[in-house]
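Page 42, continued from yesterday. The earlier attempt failed because a stray header line got pasted into the input along with the sequence. Redoing it now with the clean sequence only.
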Amino acid sequence: MSAPSFWPVPEEEQGRALATLVSAFTDDPVERWLYPEAQKYLTHFPEFLAAFGGRAFGEHTVWSLGDFAAVALWLPPGTEPDGDAIAKMLTDSVSPELHRELFSVLDQMGSAHPKHAHWYLPWFGVEAGQQGRGLGGQLMTHCLQIIDASHLPAYLETPNPRNVSFYERHGFQATGSAQAGTCPPITFMDRAGRHSGMGRTSDR
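This time it went through. Structure tokens are written below.
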């Protein structure tokens, strides 16, 4: 069987790409802390995805493996999430009793975010029914070949501790975390820029 194709996702396919991520994060501890009710999750999480990573579509740095089996939204150097849109949609959609803890975590994330030029990965996921087949590793390997060509570092936050070892296998290292009240911790991870001949990654 041939390997699934790796390809850039055009803006008109944004809905399908976000649907894959909605599926991928269904059991995520932080996202379900935000939206514990299934209907609210399905309604509001796509809006959160778009606010936090939607600018990647305009930058043409959204990549998919196969027929949207796995999707990555990368923000290239100089492009940041839409902070105003994030704050507004979370204020409007998340239960008010969580706001203090939520915005404390967001402040911690903002303070830790690198100030130097880097690639930022706000969203990366494999469709729920496709997980466990190595597709995430394949997609990450393809993406890092592009990132490594720029010789710049990469940065992400993961809200699921199960994913830390996956990112470590691809050269990321944990640098800290954000946590407040009942919100599950979010781990910060950084990957140094690669120079010629040093851009290899591994996948198990």
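Notes: The CA atoms of residues 70 and 157 lie 18 Å apart.
Reminder to self: strip header lines before submitting.
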